[in-house]
Fold:
Amino acid sequence: MLELTAKELERYQRQIMLPGFGEEGQNLLKASTAVVSGVGGLGGTVALYLAVAGIGKLILVRGGELRLDDMNRQILMTDDWVGKPRVFKAKETLEKINPDVEIDAIAEYITPENVDSLVQQSDIALSCAHNFDERDLLNAACVKWNKPMIEAAMNNMEAYLTTIIPGKTPCLSCLFPEKPEWDRRGFGVLGAVSGTLACLTALQAIQVIAGFGEPLLGKLLTMDLNRLEFAKRRTYHDPDCPVCGNKGRETITNFSSEKDDFLKFPVTSYSH
Structure:
């Protein structure tokens, strides 16, 4: 495992002090690579908090140019970058904040052609894309290559978050067997809402990588940020799921003996 430098020990001193985390957790972060799909108000902020925490490498994947109406929530961006590929600005900003983190910027969307390579290069995936096409591709690749995935999305003032571990938890296809219609600009969004969800998403990734705390395994955290209401619900594994149905079925179904205790999440529209 890579050893922490004197500079890194000083930079991360305050989190190394945390009981149960320590230098071992910091070393695990440094040795890890995370792929982030979607570098917007959610994914960009996730990348920021992984970078300042000391992740070893980030792979940022997002096609498209920055729009002016992105600026209320995409905190890695600057006004002079409007009309340019946002993923390169994200890389530039993060490298200035923490030059010890290696960052690859890929100005593409998640596709059937690139998803396997991206997941194979990574130790964990952060699902923050603006459509279910990309999310489903990432989910299937993570199940295929046995890589954990943090799934997070929001709509207006509502959000959800869960951690998917192949062979241990239901996958995204279990949660959303039917895919909603997504209109990425069809709803309002406050930057503070996407930022709140992003912080929790980054925390989940850190917990999974470092074996720290209690990640949301087999549970879905739902958030109504208009009322500041949070709820945890157990998720249901579909034994006939076309993605994970034959992967670790015995372990997955042991989350509960009562099917009615599980949540089949309602089909609705969520985005980045």
